[in-house]
Task: inverse folding
């Protein structure tokens, strides 16, 4: 009787061993019904709604209508999700800026106006992308790696704007860098204004026209002064 018991136990043990599967990402019984981009889209919406502190796995799963187990098919943890979200934003911004940098026609003035329009439109029709970037810049105040990445993006944007100005100004590098800095700050201010409740298409059009008139069209006129006050370059490095 004892031998039969031991034999039965051994047989059950062998059967159990055959059914054990290697560990893998995801909870048992949960399939990767959603791709990583859908999780990142949901995390993006959470940032837009309440900043990076609003990104939490369980509420995201509830918003997507699935269980939390699906999350672990794509991300090891919350930190990996946030890193992937920021990385995706960074890649998309660099690609967009490179495309603007490469775009060139026979009309350098129109090229620079196109850069302005693209910069103002980048916030998205519902300003979600704009609010995400504002939240990311706030996040960068606590995260040195994010701050460094944002500095890279800012430098690329300033460089492409300055290159467009050099074509307009006949190669005057100093004036081009000064005007690029002013245009960049003006666009950042416009973004802040557009993010306020009550801003609408009329406000966006007004801001675009004012910036274009004073920082693109007027400086391009023959005989327009290209030299600013003494000491204007003292703080240039703060923007690049």
Result:
């Amino acid at each position: 009787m004892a031998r039969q018991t031991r034999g039965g136990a051994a047989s059950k043990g062998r059967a159990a061993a055959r059914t054990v599967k290697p560990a893998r990402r995801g909870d048992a019984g949960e399939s990767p019904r959603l791709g990583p981009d859908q999780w990142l889209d949901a995390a993006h919406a959470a940032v837009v709604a309440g900043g990076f502190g609003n990104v939490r796995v369980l509420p995201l799963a509830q918003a997507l209508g699935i269980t939390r187990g699906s999350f672990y098919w794509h991300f090891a943890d919350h930190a990996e999700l946030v890193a992937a979200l920021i990385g995706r934003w960074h890649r998309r911004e660099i690609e967009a800026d490179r495309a603007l940098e490469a775009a060139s026609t026979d009309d350098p003035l129109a090229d620079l106006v196109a850069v302005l329009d693209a910069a103002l439109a980048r916030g998205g029709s519902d300003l979600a992308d704009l609010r995400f970037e504002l939240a990311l810049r706030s996040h960068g105040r606590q995260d040195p790696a994010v701050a460094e990445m944002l500095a890279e993006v800012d430098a690329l944007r300033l460089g492409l704007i300055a290159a467009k100005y050099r074509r307009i100004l006949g190669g005057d590098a100093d004036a081009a860098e000064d005007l690029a800095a002013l245009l960049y700050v003006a666009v950042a201010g416009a973004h802040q204004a557009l993010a306020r409740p009550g801003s609408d298409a009329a406000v966006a059009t007004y801001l675009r026209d004012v910036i274009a008139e004073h920082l693109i069209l007027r400086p391009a006129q023959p005989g327009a002064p290209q030299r600013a006050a003494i000491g204007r370059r003292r703080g240039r490095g703060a923007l690049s």
In short: The first helix runs from residue 2 to 19.
